[in-house]
């Protein structure tokens, strides 16, 4: 089995970003990271994002808020960040605490700064096949990994496992846009193993440690594992990769999709800065 390491795709995205940066003629884009509280997985993602931006000579500004901030106060602060001309793009950690009106916050976010595709306009664009918006970074990272490894989507049976708005649904739409035939599965799908076995490309995003084994994987399938779980104190994906024999290619966890997500975020930031010159 060939392992599809995210670092190879990240390197290709880095080259694309370098070309785009030269068009900015010395201007350095700034990412605004907005976080309420200090959830360990948010902090861990933030560290990776800051490191990635540094490695690409991009700026980051972290806006951290107390988890007891009121909904109105947070919305006021978020409006200021959204309108700040020095901030070219925003990453907002979600879910927000329950007392914060998330819908109102998302409505404030300018879709041109919405690097992780959470605003309604960007979601609509992904579903309409309009590539002028920003898709969620992880969903885009999956497509980037396939493309950079020359894995054709056109005409392929793609099965997506998981129907969340951050991964499952948008990645299904992006694959359809590339002319794949897509089946979107979830916890109520009947004959899940049979449906998955039929996939040329199986994209797994369910958050169930090592659940997917050869019972779900057809001969010579390509398996993209988006899952990030902890099992017996170790980071692992949704796929039991150590015991998989059927797949021709698969992404590992760690060092797979997660390694590409922050590269896509950086690329979206640079695209946002480039577009800003036009409005
Ligand atoms: P989520 O919102 O919890 O959605 C999980 C989806 O999986 C749901 O649609 C659920 O079905 C489905 N599902 C759960 N158990 C299932 C089962 N036994 N059989 C079939 N379907 C099942 O999760 P998410 O936010 O999409 O995240 C998915 C995974 O990706 C998590 O492990 C997360 O940590 C990881 N992740 C990775 C990255 C990255 O950069 N690599 C980024 C974000 C998230 P129902 O809709 O029927 O409930």
TrEMBL record:
Homodimer. NADP(+) binds at residues 162-164, 228. Belongs to the tetrahydrofolate dehydrogenase/cyclohydrolase family. Its EC number is 1.5.1.5, 3.5.4.9. GO terms for cellular component: cytosol. Catalyzes the oxidation of 5,10-methylenetetrahydrofolate to 5,10-methenyltetrahydrofolate and then the hydrolysis of 5,10-methenyltetrahydrofolate to 10-formyltetrahydrofolate. HAMAP family: THF_DHG_CYH. GO terms for molecular function: methenyltetrahydrofolate cyclohydrolase activity; methylenetetrahydrofolate dehydrogenase (NADP+) activity. Keywords: Amino-acid biosynthesis, Histidine biosynthesis, Hydrolase, Methionine biosynthesis, Multifunctional enzyme, NADP, One-carbon metabolism, Oxidoreductase, Purine biosynthesis. Residues 136-275 form the Tetrahydrofolate dehydrogenase/cyclohydrolase NAD(P)-binding domain. GO terms for biological process: L-histidine biosynthetic process; methionine biosynthetic process; purine nucleotide biosynthetic process; tetrahydrofolate interconversion. The keyword Hydrolase applies. This is Bifunctional protein FolD. Pathway: One-carbon metabolism; tetrahydrofolate interconversion. It catalyses: (6R)-5,10-methenyltetrahydrofolate + H2O = (6R)-10-formyltetrahydrofolate + H(+); (6R)-5,10-methylene-5,6,7,8-tetrahydrofolate + NADP(+) = (6R)-5,10-methenyltetrahydrofolate + NADPH. SUPFAM superfamilies: Aminoacid dehydrogenase-like, N-terminal domain, NAD(P)-binding Rossmann-fold domains. The gene is folD. It comes from Lachnoanaerobaculum gingivalis. Residues 5-116 form the Tetrahydrofolate dehydrogenase/cyclohydrolase catalytic domain.
């Amino acid at each position: 089995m060939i392992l599809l390491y995210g670092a190879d795709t990240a390197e290709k995205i880095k080259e694309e970003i370098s070309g785009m940066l030269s068009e900015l003629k010395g201007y350095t884009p700034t990412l605004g990271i907005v976080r309420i509280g200090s959830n360990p997985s948010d902090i861990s993602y933030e560290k990776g994002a800051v490191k990635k931006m540094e490695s690409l000579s991009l700026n980051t500004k972290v806006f951290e808020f107390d988890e007891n901030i009121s909904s109105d106060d947070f919305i006021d602060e978020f409006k200021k960040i959204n309108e700040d001309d020095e901030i070219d793009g925003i990453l907002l950690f979600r879910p927000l605490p329950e007392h914060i009106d998330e819908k109102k916050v998302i409505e404030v976010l300018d879709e041109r700064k919405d690097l992780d595709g959470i605003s309604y306009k960007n979601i609509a664009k992904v579903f309409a096949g309009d590539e002028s918006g920003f898709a969620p970074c992880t969903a885009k990272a999956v497509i980037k990994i396939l493309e950079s490894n020359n894995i054709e989507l056109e005409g392929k049976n793609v099965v997506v496992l998981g129907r969340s708005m951050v991964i499952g649904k948008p990645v299904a739409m992006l694959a359809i846009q590339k002319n794949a035939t897509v089946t979107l599965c979830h916890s109520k799908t009947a004959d899940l193993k049979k449906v998955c076995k039929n996939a040329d490309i199986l994209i797994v995003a369910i958050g169930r440690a090592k659940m997917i084994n050869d019972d779900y994987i057809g001969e010579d399938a390509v398996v993209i594992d988006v899952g990030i779980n902890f099992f017996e104190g170790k980071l692992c994906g949704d796929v039991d990769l150590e015991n998989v024999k059927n797949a021709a290619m698969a992404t590992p966890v760690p060092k797979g999709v997660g390694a590409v997500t922050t590269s896509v975020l950086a690329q979206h930031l640079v695209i946002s800065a480039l577009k800003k010159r036009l409005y």
